[in-house]
Amino acid sequence: MILRVAILISGSGSNMVALAQSMRGDHPARPCLVLSNDPAASGLDKARDMGIATAAVDHRPYGLERAAFEAALLRPLLDAQPDLIALAGFMRVLTPEFVAQFEGRMLNIHPSLLPKYKGLNTHARAIEAGDTVAGCTVHEVTAALDDGPILGQAHVPVHPDDTAQTLAARVLPMEHRLYPAVLRRVAMGDRSLLTIS
Ligand code: GAR
Questions:
Q1: Where does ligand 1 bind, in terms of residues with CB under 6 Å?
Q2: C-alpha of residue 100 to centroid of ligand 1, in Å
């Protein structure tokens, strides 16, 4: 059985592209939808260019009405009938109620070595702390932010002259290696920890 993967993005979608490009040939999954909370996200154009169905639900008109936003987000998502959901630079916090509907079926990539630096500004915080190693993590999404079981981590060195930008530029290519590798393993039923460096 070929698994259907919905990918949620907010911006440029480079992780989405890496995931979509990996789901070819003998891969046990295929992308079924790229969904964004920002109709202007450039990743949507990249998905269309790759022939993947897209949808956007602008979060802004909903303001603090998080449940209403998520109800709108749910419509195209459920229509696509995904087996797995991959958050790939999706920058909205999802409620526990939303996450619970996809328990064990939703993955996220986060640009830090979790459990360090949940939330935002991960690279600046790693530099500020004097860390000599940084990286990224793919984990299962649970109700708590950036907190679910860790499925994979990739490590990069932090250089003494790094800025948040230079460190991000070193981590991002590792994200593009790690996320497809973890997705493939999960699609094949393997949730053991993958570490790359
Ligand atoms: C990536 O670095 C991803 O790890 C990060 O946003 C970027 C999205 O880039 N995600 C988070 O910070 C989630 N909290 P992309 O749109 O080019 O994939």
A1: 9, 11-15, 43, 88-89, 109-111, 136, 172, 175
A2: 22
Residue 197 lies in a domain: no
58-100 pLDDT, tens digit per residue, is 999 999 999 999 999 999 999 999 999 999 999 999 999 999 9
Q: Consecutive sets of 10 residues in the chain, 197 residues long: mean pLDDT of each? A: 98 98 98 98 98 98 96 98 98 97 97 98 98 98 96 98 98 98 98 97
Indicate which CATH number applies to the domain containing 118. Answer: 3.40.50.170
Strand-pairing partners, residue 4, are: 30
| DSSP tag of 61 | G
CA atoms within 13 A on the CB side of 8: 25
Do the Cβ atoms of 11 and 31 come closer than 8 Å?
no
Residue 196 lies in a domain: no
pTM: 0.98
Q: How many domains does one find in the chain? A: 1
Is 159 one of the annotated active-site residues of the chain? Answer: no
Range of the domain at 157: 3-191
